[in-house]
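step 3/5: co-fold with pyridoxal-5'-phosphate
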Amino acid sequence: MTKINANYQKLPGSYLFSMIAKKIAAYSAAHPDAQIIRLGIGDVTQPLGAPVIKALHEGVDEMANAATFHGYAPDLGYSFLREAIAGEYKERGSKIEADEIFVSDGAKSDSANIQELFDLDNRIAVSDPVYPVYVDSNVMAGRTGTYDAATGMWSDVTYMPCTEENGFIADLPKERADIIYLCFPNNPTGMTVTKEQLQRWVDYANEHDSVIIYDAAYEAYITEADKPHSIYECEGARTCAIEIRSFSKNAGFTGLRLGFTVIPKELKRGGCSLHDMWARRHGTKYNGAPYIVQKAGAACYTPEGKASIRSEVGYYMENARIIYTSLKDMGYTVYGGVNAPYIWLKTPDQMTSWDFFDRLLETIHVVGTPGAGFGPHGEGFFRLTAFGTRENTKKAMERFRKL
Ligand SMILES: Cc1ncc(COP(=O)(O)O)c(C=O)c1O
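step 4/5: write tokens
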């Protein structure tokens, strides 16, 4: 008899955004005239930039000609893209070689799959609240123990609370943590670390032989000069950190799909090179991101591409400013929005985050994301994203004023 992976049965409810989609669908079906504004899921709304579109067109034309046609891509990525990415790290002062970069179809799959490199006996630590994929992928693998529905916590996961008191930057774990997931700028809180704060994590990981999985999907949104764009800006990160990045939020590739993971060659655990293990994993389980998409990715590193990204990010950050200042003006307690496209808002009147979600949907037809969906310490908070259009962002704020 076929036995299923019973760990899937342990996952509580559906994935956060599927649950939100279901609620919106039910409300829309019952109220077909409601004009719903979605500031919930972190998907972009602006079209791809002109340099990316040009590269895509050229790539398509190359595929139409036998002399320039491309079949399977190299499974670790085309060197033209890996070199361009390495060049960008170099410009920011981090020494990352092109062959330490593994091109993929995005940061979600990499951040979910990376745990495969580690034994089930490792203890994971996550900042809380955080992007749900880190914990859920470890649940599927069977690394998280038992779930306590009352607390929303797994017995074998170390939760590192991010609260108003600690400025939403978790303290170092007090108990053993073998694999530490960090995400800066953070989804959902929109807050980010200073280099000194991040250095403490790197020192901790090197001292304890832990590995940091550093998700920098939102680094392009950093506006403050003292905030690190990469963990490799910290001394010693090459011996303890894996960095994951995405083209989704900076260049709008959410529908194209492209990302990459950096694993320095010095990073070894148990005498084994994590770089070589990931190369083996990629070679076996992944057949390479499409040529035309990688070509479009490389276009992001040209002067025109960089200017286009600055303009797209600037558009969303102006939305972030509008949301942040409007809500503050209305008396809400708000965080984030300065180095990230997320505004983290304290729910009024001590409402639960799902109650606040329902209230917004039903009264002003604005959709956000309940903080509880990102972990137990997300309760009492609510995430709004700056990825809407300017028009919808302004309209949503007008509706908030009527609440
Ligand atoms: C922290 C974080 N990492 C990764 C992703 C997914 O990125 P990608 O589109 O490259 O899969 C998201 C998407 O919302 C995210 O918030």
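step 5/5: annotate
The longest strand covers residues 241-246.
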